[in-house]
Amino acid sequence: MTFGPPPSPFTQSRQEAKQRVRRKNVVWVVGAALLAGVLAVTGWALWPGSSDQGKNLVGKGAANLPPDAIRETVEKAPQGGAGYLDTSMLANGVVPGKVVSTPGMWATSKTLVKSRGTSLVGIKVGSDREAWKAVLPGEICATTPYVTVDGRTAIVYKGSKGESCNRLSMFNVDSGKQLWWTTIPWREPPSGVSTTVTMTRGVVVSSWWFGSVAVDMKSGKRLWRHTEEGKCRDTQMAGGKALAVVVNCPGARAVDKRKFQLRELNPRNGEVQWTYAVAAGVNYPYVVSSKPAVLAVAAGSTQVSDLISLDENGKYRATVRLEGDHYKVDCSAERGDGCAGALVSDDQVFVSSGENTGKFSYETNWIVGFSLATGKSGVKFDAGPGQLLHLVRMSGHHVLAIKEGLDGVAPMSLVSLDPATGKERAYFYFNIPSDSGAATRPGSVVVEDGRLYMGNDDIKGSGKKELPDARWMAYEVAPAA
Questions:
Q1: Which CA distances in Å does 124 have to 76, 242, 321?
Q2: Which residues contact 19 (CB under 8 A, 6 or more apart)?
Q3: DSSP-derived pairing of the beta strands 342-344 and 348-352
Q4: Is the CB of residue 78 less than 8 Å from the CB of residue 177?
Q5: CB of 261 within 8 A of CB of 274?
Q6: ∠ at Cα 156 (275, 218), nearest 5°?
Q7: Is 408 exposed, middle or buried (0-12, 13-18, 19+ CB in 10 A)?
């Protein structure tokens, strides 16, 4: 990897970004006494990760996490007020009609990082200075949203153009330094099956259709490898506080139904700690959380129908029934870690409903907390008329979410939801460029050190061939105060 300060097509000056936004007539909403002040817009490119986040941990016991543990930062209390577009990552020169992959996003209090094709770029938060740039020999195949307490993350990429996804690497988010890379015994999977990468304390794990491999986080040396076990194979790895794997064991004949298991593994040696046999009739299970262990299952279709909580020994605890389309949980084996629309704390799983039209013909949704011990519903947070709530992550015992206005006038906001009181408090209110295209799914949104980052997993070129439009890759929203 190489990195350094030279200008690149990822970065734009603050003045250029301001002029671009003026041309697009982007309106920043200031009102309701909460949005006093002028909302400034600046341009620059970033990608999220964290190297100094241990300093920002304020939850009980959180500051005692070791450097190689997965980051669990707790944001400061919400202050309300206005937010503004402080930093943006724009890509120039994308051929109109061409789609370019831009997976992965990481942020620290210092640096925002994003990928584009075969490159990674780190940008200083709140400035127009490129911190580093890394050029890879091939495209990135897999990323993980996890970052260690001391600011490391992992990716899988191709050794060269046209080569297989056989390189597993770890790098420092703030410096861009590649700490190690190693070759993994990757084999071409069936169509539609993706390579994944995840992390738990001290270990990086990559999986594909025919196996998985674990690597020591410090040295890059292989710890263990799983291959097909008879007809059984690892199909999804999930990290975080523990290491869980979904195992697929198809029947002996084509007419036999598949049998799935969820296993917790010892990250250092790959040995099975416990096994939970998924009930027959489940088309596919997904790991929502490795610890506490929560499984999403699709019974009778591809849509998630139930959430199942397990105890620390892998024994069944409770079922949360999603009642058809009443709640909307979206899982993907390609994503690996977590599901959109579901978020797990120590004792609850928070689930968002689908978009609903109320009796006054406005769209809205809500978030409900369900007990992991009983499966019963508890606290409920309503988005309100013409608004939607999108789950982001846990921050200590509070839930971080984005509230989106649907009328084109009301601003968006980053909010904190308190399960103990049922109250909502806003960090800040903001609007985003209408052509940004950023989504609110897991991995596309990061909240770190009081700032909100939103990004795209791919971009499509537009404009004229001789003068392509600049495309949004990611941007940062910061509090005005």
A1: 22, 32, 44
A2: none
A3: antiparallel
A4: no
A5: no
A6: 75
A7: exposed
b/e per residue 96-118 (b: at least 16 CB within 10 A): eeeebebbbbbbbbbbbbbbbeb
H or E element, residue 152: strand 152-157
CA pair distance 367, 326, nearest whole angstrom: 11
Predicted pLDDT of residue 149: 96
**Whole-structure pTM value:** 0.84
pLDDT of residue 7: 32
- Say what the pLDDT of residue 431 is: 86
Which residues fall within 8 angstroms of residue 389, CB to CB, at 6 or more apart?
352, 365, 366, 367, 381, 383, 401, 402, 403, 404, 415
Instruction: Please give the Cα distance from 176 to 360 (Å, whole number).
Output: 51
| CB atoms inside a 10 Å sphere around CB 431 | 22
Instruction: Kindly give the residue spans of alpha helices, DSSP state H, lying in 87-223.
Output: none
Please list the residues that pair with 351 across neighbouring strands.
342, 368
Which amino acid does the sequence have at 321? Answer: R
What pLDDT was estimated at residue 43? 26
Q: Is 388 helix (H, G, I), strand (E, B) or coil?
A: strand
Q: Write out the two tokens for 425.
A: 């408090």
Token digits of residue 307: 């959430």
Euclidean distance between the first and final Cα of the chain, in Å? 38
Cα–Cα distance between 430 and 276 in angstroms, integer? 44
340 Cα distance to chain centroid: 9
Q: Which residues, given as ranges, of the chain have pLDDT below 70?
A: 1-63, 128, 187-193, 229, 251-257, 335-336, 357-361, 437-443, 481
Interatomic CA distance for residues 334 and 142, integer angstroms: 9
